[in-house]
Specification:
By secondary structure, this protein is an alpha+beta fold. It is built from four helices and four strands, in the order αααβββαβ. It is globular.
Amino acid sequence: MTRTLTEFMVVAAIVTAIVFFITKAKYEKTLYNDESSDSILIPSADELKVMTPMEIHNFYHSYVNSHQALCRREVRIGKITDGGWEVCEDAQYRPERPCLVYSFGIANDFSFDDGIEKRYGCEVHSFDPT
């Protein structure tokens, strides 16, 4: 069965949201806890099922681009332009061996993937649907 790019992106966004939900639950004590915070609530599985691809896209980017925990030391891994990401190096968040990273949407820019492997020794799997 052939999947379209839109279907792939929807599935990738849902999987990413679920992974972040698990991560959020794991570090709940360090997340924003007060009612007045700017934290972003993750939709329930039922809510995700009825969201349009554009709503999932918007949620995904607003969540990924928001700070979910206080980080005292961030480092840039990868290019300063598109292709790199900030990684928290505080002890409770810093990747430790063995670690596994799934990188989506690389567009032939492996700078983040290579940097994660070099700096932390993580196994990295890179994907791009284009």
